[in-house]
Every structure is written in structure tokens, then in C-alpha cells.
Specification:
The chain has one domain (about 10-60). It has 2 helices and 2 strands, in the order βαβα. It has helices at about 20-35, 50-60, and strands spanning about 10-15, 40-45. Strands 1-2 form a two-stranded parallel sheet. Strand 1 (about 10-15), helix 1 and strand 2 form a beta-alpha-beta unit. Helix 1 runs parallel beside helix 2 (about 50-60). GO terms for molecular function: glycosyltransferase activity.
């Protein structure tokens, strides 16, 4: 090892959710701040609080979601 950072290959982060509407936005923002090229796959279990709708809105606005 040379001690130099190696570039990451493709990264997919699975984000399981249920009633996480208040947390999903910040989680996705932090993920993309840390690894800008990472893709997020949000898996929602039919949350009644709007988590799925938020995930859909984020996906419509950002191809990484």
C-alpha cells in the first residue's frame, strides 16, 4: 500500500425506511456530501408518514436516488 487514497468504484447504498420522512432528506444529503457519486436505493415499507412520497420526489430531482 502506498498510503494514497484509491478512487471508489460504483457505490450503491440501500436505505431501508419506515416512517423516516424527517430523516430521509438529511441522510441522503450526508451520503452525497461524503460520496458525491454514490447512488441511493430507498426501500420504503409503505410508510404512512410520506416517506415514500419524499423518496419519489428526491428520485425525480436527482438521478442518484
Amino acid at each position: 500500500m502506498t498510503g494514497r487514497a484509491q478512487p471508489l468504484g460504483p457505490v450503491l447504498v440501500v436505505v431501508p425506511t419506515y416512517d423516516e420522512v424527517a430523516n430521509l432528506g438529511p441522510v441522503l444529503d450526508r451520503l452525497h456530501a461524503a460520496v458525491p457519486t454514490a447512488h441511493a436505493l430507498v426501500v420504503d415499507d409503505n410508510s404512512p408518514d410520506g416517506t415514500g412520497a419524499l423518496a419519489d420526489a428526491r428520485a425525480a430531482a436527482d438521478e442518484r436516488v
